């Protein structure tokens, strides 16, 4: 990046005026080498008052510090997170802002990989998120995505959850996680007790016990191909692919 040195500085405040703007652009767009080159060019081109020069250096140090903090978060982990989720860089930043908003005093503004894995927001706070608040499965969703199995989510857990519930995630993955969410006892099958709990949440406990048993029996009757009294993942997948509104009910916007 070239930087011009001619013309008035325009302002005694560093970071303002033509030179300030060029230096700032150099710092943010070109990184450290370009900014140093730009500053050297500028210093060789004209003699600035000592005070302005000192303030400019201070400003540059501040910009580099900010840039470095951002770099730590953006460069290494963003590539990794972009690979592992269905989010763009911009969406990941939005998710981070949302996550930090839940507990600003606990979640750091700049995430290291250790923070992203180890700093957890409690389930009770996560359940108050507008995206989850009205969802009858909110507790179960948090449990399924939490790496501590208690429903408390780290930033990476949270990112996974929102990514899979987002409109960008393919149907297959949504079906896989829907199965996990409905499989309350984690035995890899949807048995009568899983179906009852699912139904209870879906109907917000408005069915009588006999009605619930009848509905569950009907579901097993219709979907249980190998007649073992429970639904395997294949059987569940077969049923859910025939439900055209499944995708619309299994996504949230960030
Ligand atoms: Ca089960
Ligand atoms: Ca079966």
TrEMBL record:
GO molecular function terms listed in the Swiss-Prot or TrEMBL record: calcium ion binding; magnesium ion binding
CDD domains, per database record: EFh (cd00051)
Gene3D superfamilies: EF-hand
Domain EF-hand as annotated: residue spans: 170-205, 211-246
Coiled coil regions in record: none
The keyword Calcium is annotated on this UniProt entry: yes
GO BP terms, alphabetized: calcium ion homeostasis; integrin-mediated signaling pathway
Keywords of the record: Calcium, Integrin, Magnesium, Metal-binding, Repeat
InterPro entries (UniProt xref): CIBP, EF-hand-dom_pair, EF_Hand_1_Ca_BS, EF_hand_dom
Pfam families named in the record: EF-hand_7 (PF13499)
PANTHER family in UniProt: CALCIUM AND INTEGRIN BINDING FAMILY MEMBER 2 (PTHR45791:SF6)
Name of the featured protein: Calcium and integrin-binding family member 2
Gene name linked to the record: LOC113213426
